[in-house]
Amino acid sequence: MSCQVSIIIPTFNRASLIVATLQRIQEQTFTSWECLIVDDGSTDTTLETVGRFIAQDSRFALYSRPESLLKGSNSCRNFGFEKAQGAWVHFFDSDDVLEPTFYETLLTGDLAGIQMVAGSYFVTDSHLQKREAVSLTLKSTLFRDYVLWRLKLITGCVIFRKSFLLQQTFPLFHPDLHRGQETELFSRLFFQLEPSAYRIYDFPLFLYRQHPDSKTAQHQTYLPLYKQSQFWVLQQIRTLSQSLQDSELNRHFFNTLTVLFFDAVTHRDLALAPAVLREMISLLKSYSHVKSLEVFVLGHLVLWFQRPVYRLRKRWLHFYPDTHEK
Q1: What is the tens place of the pLDDT at every residue in 123-137?
Q2: Per the omega criterion (within 30 degrees of 0), is the bond before 171 cis?
Q3: What gap in Å lies between CA 174 and CA 123, rounded to an integer?
Q4: Residue 225, exposed/middle/buried by CB under 10 A (0-12, 13-18, 19+)?
Q5: CA distance between the termini of the chain
Q6: Do the bridges between strand 33-39 and strand 60-64 make them parallel or antiparallel, or are there none, so unpaired?
Q7: Cα–Cα–Cα angle for 78, 84, 90, nearest 5°?
Q8: What is the pTM of this model?
């Protein structure tokens, strides 16, 4: 089937939510699309629910994640990408809801040389009632604003040209990550994009649903696998950005690591805490040997006693300034 955009939706036990998601795709004013739903082993009625849409509209297709692939949305997205036939690719979630003009707004007009288009969104509750618009205003560069989380681009915001994604290192989404898979991929992609290669529309075009089963909600508690993934992603972004020699980015990395270190100590995650401490010391050495020595000595004492010292945490969060001291 020839189409302009492939919508790739991983799903797992979302029978109660995916109906609204698929209905809004079917109602799009832009009609040249295919929707590839990749099931991750649902045990509820998700398959039957999706099957009803397929029976009505041949633009929907359902796949099951191959047993040879790791369970999780990352593998499902990668598998869906292999099946995609569109010139553009949109990774979307099975609990979010598009506005009817989403694709018409982003994929019409002269797109020569454009590798990515994006639109803003509403943050909403599980019933799609309360809505808070998110502004997407670029203040510096795409990569920098995204890493500093001044530009809150999430998975459903962006559509990539497929040929651009085919140029990337595979897998696109790392299957073994439990958190931050979009952050790692988007940082990698945004680092490459020149201002002339993307467009961002700063008005809401879909509903980003928050509910108790979402990963955003789960992230409010300490989950070791999530924190380990967060640390790995931060390491990748830090490596990517080293050539920029950006003091504000370095401050952001150090402060994020500091919070992660004390969280790990608080929750007795002694597999993660020493690795985070080593990264903090490494990052701080390029700024101040005296301060890196303090972090080395006192950080190891914190590990030894397994007790977070919150005065120390507060002090370290002010260690790295916005600009280097001369």
Answers
A1: 999 999 999 999 999
A2: yes
A3: 26
A4: exposed
A5: 61
A6: parallel
A7: 75
A8: 0.93
